[in-house]
Amino acid sequence: MRLELPEAKRLVYEMCIPIRWGDMDAMGHVNNTTYFRYLETARIDWMRSIGCAPDPKGEGPVIVNAFCNFYHQLAYPGDVVVKTFVSDVGRSSFETWGTMERSDQPGILCAAGGATTVWINFPVQRSAPLPDWMRHILIDSAPG
User: Fold this and answer.
1) DSSP 76
2) End-to-end C-alpha distance for the chain, whole angstroms
3) d(Cα 76, Cα 68) in Å, to the nearest integer?
4) Cα–Cα distance measured from residue 92 to residue 24, given in angstroms and rounded to the nearest whole number
5) How confident is the model over 20-56, as pLDDT tens digits?
6) Are 38 and 80 spatial neighbours (Cβ–Cβ below 8 Å)?
7) Would the pTM count as exceeding 0.85?
8) CA distance 23 to 45
9) Element (H, E) at 81
10) What are phi and psi of 47, to 5 degrees?
11) CA–CA distance from 48 to each of 4, 42, 83, 105 (Å)?
12) 10-139: CATH architecture
């Protein structure tokens, strides 16, 4: 099954991540699980850049599902450019999306994935409304 990224999404962050020798598997290409790490690294870096660190005694974001589609193999050496997008902002959740391409091959999509993010009240372990400051960032702000 392939899940497609929506047309209606907004770029919020971009970063370049070095491909490490240890990211590869026995087949000589980046292991599939590492693509999820690249998406996670970019998503966490974006969230930290906007002051969105989870507070175990309060509230914060939690990923409730994730997927990745693989189009072209990544391999060492090189750098992967990960672009993070958001869409579908709801009462307590939003979608994050990521695309991955080699820095030396711009425009050639190697992989793309996404994750549903839910705002959680950690002490009660239930979803909570997105705070106004976070909603503003998701809907109104320019890319970080």
Assistant:
1) S
2) 32
3) 20
4) 37
5) 999 999 989 999 999 999 999 999 999 999 999 878 8
6) yes
7) yes
8) 19
9) strand 79-87
10) -60, -40
11) 27, 10, 15, 28
12) Roll (3.10)
